[in-house]
Design brief:
Blueprint: H1 11-15, H2 32-45, E1 48-52, E2 58-62, H3 65-74, E3 79-81, H4 85-92, H5 101-111, H6 117-122, H7 124-143, E4 148-149, H8 150-167, H9 169-175, H10 184-188, H11 194-216, H12 224-230, H13 241-271, H14 274-287, H15 296-300, H16 303-315, E5 322-326, E6 330-332, E7 335-337, E8 342-345, H17 347-351, H18 372-375, H19 393-407, E9 411-415, E10 423-425, E11 429-431, E12 436-441
Parallel strand pairs: 2-8
Antiparallel strand pairs: 1-2, 3-5, 4-12, 5-8, 6-7, 9-12, 10-11
Helix pairs in contact: 7-8, 7-19, 8-9, 8-13, 13-16, 13-19, 14-16
Bound molecules: protoporphyrin IX containing FE.
Protoporphyrin IX containing FE (HEM) binds near residues 251, 259 and 313.
């Protein structure tokens, strides 16, 4: 006898079957309430939940690893970006993160070569310099017995790094020239209100000036802006000014807050897990050359550091919730997905689901030990999956490894309390309040 209750159904019947879910409408956003709602729905109805939103639109929450792959990889052409991206559009126009279809495909093809490993390696010196800057600030704080605000520090580090990687010397010579940092609002104003709209407008004008100057005088500086300006589509056309601006804003926003938040959580976790910290320092010291300047060979040998970063991204995936919208009908296992349905996928929830990750709330970098082949099939997707997977994955691991490898052997950042930081669940997962740590210079 068959145990599959759907075996007798025809394909069209299957396509009409809605997954289990509540009978009443459920509001969903990208906010803390939504995390609670989705967690409760999964507990009650399982890994594929069907529901209706107050607008009448069908929505699915998917926490099943195979179904997540189906949407992001196998059938990605049937889905586009979903709700929640409107707010991001204010900053990013129609850049890579928010665009869909042919616009996205053209931009992705033009931009992808800039992220080749050898190009990222050419930006390593900037990563080293930005880490050195933090070292100087932390020495100063340690001498004075002051605490450091690691949330602000990691944010400053990652923002400066991405800006210098994009604009090269123009960052200091042109963008900072009048004394005010026009990017400050990105790391300091967490509210996206009207004043931010004005600041974005002013910033875009400044960036247009830089683009115009570069178009007039070729310079051979190696940075993302030059790589983006040289990119051509299949017809041989470059990005227009408007497209270039959208892509630059996208790169800044995509490239800084995600890495900054991850480093913030790493330092917090290390301050509370001395045995992990000791192993990390051991590994960094083994790699660190006499001049304290790590290179790509050193960083690729930092296997345990990689594990620590992956485990941090499991517990605190910066993009904790993704959305998609079905642009045509699809079938998901035994269920139908109607065109127009909203799809919610949460790395945060999947990464903490006990049946896939035993003792899910425990910080244990050894979960990521072993060769990549055995780890590949884990339900783990902090950088998303498929053709829209993050372009900056290698860049971010390199910057985070250099940051830790250069700073950890020099400084212990001690916890000053045992508070567990509350989460702020917006577009990015952040700590609700800044984390303060006490820097102590090590005697290595
Ligand atoms: C820990 C660090 C990072 C994490 C966890 C992360 C995560 C992600 C995720 C989840 C997406 C896909 C979102 C979606 O499909 O809805 C994405 C896209 C993207 N990320 Fe990252 N990211 C990180 C760092 C970076 C960095 C450093 C850069 C650039 C230097 C970058 C550039 C991009 C770009 C350009 C896209 C859009 C790709 C596309 O749609 O074709 N990211 N990232």
């Amino acid at each position: 006898m068959s145990l599959n209750p759907f075996e007798f159904m025809s394909v069209s019947e299957t396509a009409n079957t809605r997954p289990p879910g509540p009978d009443t409408a459920v509001p969903l956003g990208i906010d803390p309430q939504t995390l609670e709602t989705l967690t409760a729905l999964q507990r009650e109805y399982g890994d594929i939940v069907g529901l209706e939103k107050p607008s009448g639109r069908t929505a699915y929450f998917i926490n099943d690893p195979a179904a997540v792959r189906h949407i992001l990889v196998r059938r990605h052409t049937r889905y586009e970006k979903g709700p929640g991206f409107e707010r991001v559009k204010m900053l990013l126009g129609n850049g890579l993160i928010v665009s869909n279809g042919d616009v996205w495909r053209r931009s992705r093809t033009m931009i992808q070569p800039a992220f080749k490993v050898q190009n990222v390696h050419r930006l390593m010196q900037v990563m080293v310099d930005c880490s050195e800057k933090r070292a100087a600030a932390w020495s100063h704080a340690a001498e004075r017995g002051e605490l450091i605000n690691i949330t602000q520090e990691t944010s400053d580090f990652a923002l400066e790094l991405i800006l210098v990687s994009i604009f090269g010397a123009d960052y200091e010579n042109k963008l900072l020239a009048d004394g005010d940092n026009p990017f400050d609002f990105l790391s300091k104003d967490s509210t996206r209100d009207l004043s931010v709209v004005m600041k974005v407008r002013k910033l875009r004008e400044q960036l247009l000036d830089i683009i115009a100057a570069r178009r007039e005088h070729d310079d051979d500086e190696f940075d993302f802006l030059n790589m983006y300006m040289q990119a051509r589509d299949k017809q041989g056309n470059p990005f227009s000014d408007k497209e270039l601006l959208d892509e630059l804003m996208t790169l800044i926003v995509a490239g800084f807050e995600t890495s900054a938040n991850t480093l913030n959580w790493v330092w917090y976790l290390l301050a509370h897990n001395p045995s992990v910290e000791q192993r990390l320092i051991g590994e960094a010291l083994q790699q660190l050359p006499d001049d304290d300047r790590l290179n790509a060979e050193h960083t690729s040998a930092m296997v345990y550091t990689q594990q620590v970063l992956e485990e941090t991204l499991r517990l605190y995936p910066p993009v904790w919730l993704f959305t998609r919208r079905a642009i045509e009908a699809d079938e998901l296992e035994v269920f139908g997905v109607p065109a127009g349905a909203d799809i919610y996928l949460s790395p945060y929830i999947l990464h903490r689901t006990e049946k896939y990750w035993p003792q899910p709330d425990r910080f244990d970098p050894d979960r990521f030990a072993g060769d990549t082949a055995t780890r590949k099939d884990r339900p783990y997707f902090p950088f998303s999956l498929g053709p829209r997977r993050c372009l900056g994955e290698y860049f971010s691991f390199l910057e985070m490894k250099l940051h830790l490898g250069m700073l950890l052997p020099r400084f212990q950042l001690q916890a000053v309390d045992s508070n567990v930081p509350a989460l702020e669940l917006g577009i990015n997962l952040r700590a609700k309040t800044d984390i303060m740590l006490k820097p102590v210079v090590r005697g290595h």
